[in-house]
## 1
Amino acid sequence: MGSVKDYFSSLGSGIASLLKGMQITGKEFITPKITEKYPENRETVKVPERFRAILTLKYDDEGRHKCIACGICQRNCPNGTITITSKMVDTPDGKKKRKLDKYIYDLGSCTFCQLCVTTCPQDALDFSNDFEQAVFTREKLVKQLNYLPEKEDPAPSPEELARMAAEKEAKIAAAKAAAAAKKAAAAAAGDATQVTPENKEN
Ligand code: SF4
Ligand code: SF4
């Protein structure tokens, strides 16, 4: 008899415990959230401007970046996070110019020290505060920062072409004049040191 009584007593306390738990859970369902707002507030969340989430190349309104592929940021990075490859291209005035080919950045090894940004002579780099950078594999953390199609430099105007040609001619003329002057000076120095019967008597 006693065991039947214990059975129903346990059953009653189990049901009471269950109801109490459900009451707490139900209350939490309708209580406004205090600490955990993300990701519901993704659209309105304010991340400080100076928060460093990922390195980016600055692009102007026409989609051009300012990187000249000098490699200073790569050399200054303490972690080998940046790998730059460059290429040589022909310019309209017939010269060769180094241009950026690929700017590879490994977010997984970046310590956000910002040395690359502060030492860039072109002010070409910045940190974005876009904090949603989670991915499923480490490979996806390696990103190419010059992701936009390379824009061609604007073609020089006829006036600019004429000016570049004139500058080139002037440089050639100046080099020729300097070489002639050097040659004449060397010849004069040779004459002065030559031993002649006249300067031998003196
Ligand atoms: S980002 Fe700046 S420092 Fe780095 S290669 Fe380009 S110009 Fe040079
Ligand atoms: S922030 Fe520091 S660690 Fe990250 S890429 Fe720049 S120099 Fe390297």
## 2
Amino acid sequence: MNSILIDIIEKAMSSGMISSVMVPSRGPEDSFPWTLVSNISALQRAEPLPPVMSVQGAKALASFTQSLPEGKLLAVMRPCEVRSTIELSKLEQIDLDRILLLTMDCPGAVPLKEYVENGMMEPDISSPETLRPLCRQCIEFTSAGDLCLSVHGGLHSVVSLTARGEELLDSLGMKAESNTSEWKEWANGLRLEREKIKTESTESLKKAYSGLQGLVEAFSGCISCRSCRTVCPICYCRLCFIDMKDRRSPASAHLEHSYNAGAARLISNTLLFHIGRMAHMSLSCVSCGMCEDACPSDIPIGRLVSMVSDNTTELFDYSAGRNPEDPLPLNTFCLEELHEYED
Ligand code: SF4
Ligand code: SF4
Ligand code: SF4
């Protein structure tokens, strides 16, 4: 693990500033489960940036932190996991009062299937082709949360991004890096490359799947396993509207549809599920790619939701997870907005 990160964690734990750390650790069979570490010696197995993402960090955090009883927790996560944590806090699924968020320049992750198929070998993540599609086009690969550990652009130091981050470093007698120009230059350069990849990917998705017929085609191979929903950090409802009993159409409706069209597809609500999920997700999707990584039918589900999300967030001038103070557009009533969509 990075020595600056160890230094921060050790000092913060021994001074009592934080009582535990949530970080991925190396588990059996080269797996990387999330772990809650309360003893410095257990940090030896920590792997803050494993080659794969098996569980999204925000999901792991939300599983136990709705109200932390005591002490402060440091969550060491990738930028997309930090951003979904911030979204979940706005959705009242995580209480950030006792949680500090530390991220790092993220190199991306490889597809889980390929990692498993290749015998869990250490993959070469330096080549963009090996990364998951949404990592290849990720433009938010750094600077999220309270503190960011930068390892690129000649900078190997910690940058504080909020007053809470600054306060932690101060109390540990550590200084946040102030000369960040080379690091920012590196990030801007990579962002430009990624924006190009993203534009090309969006263009080809639009071409392949435009309109309602395009959506039907995109999801024609969907096996309704709902894995995309299960792994998504933002899909937090305990009961999905699509699984409610009264959402199921009666046999007579299927038969009527079949008589009218000659044949009717079963299971019938596949498209409704995806359109509903897109509508629910689109303002808070952080383009983490978990849904796409989990899809057994290789549907570009993450890129599709992310593309829709880009449009809706632009409409509301919102960026998912970037600023904890920005109100969620769906929770914010504005008398004067979106008049262009009236009538
Ligand atoms: S989408 Fe990929 S590259 Fe971007 S922060 Fe997440 S894991 Fe890192
Ligand atoms: S919809 Fe997919 S890409 Fe978006 S937050 Fe959920 S899992 Fe991540
Ligand atoms: S994971 Fe893939 S196959 Fe399963 S419901 Fe989602 S899109 Fe369909």
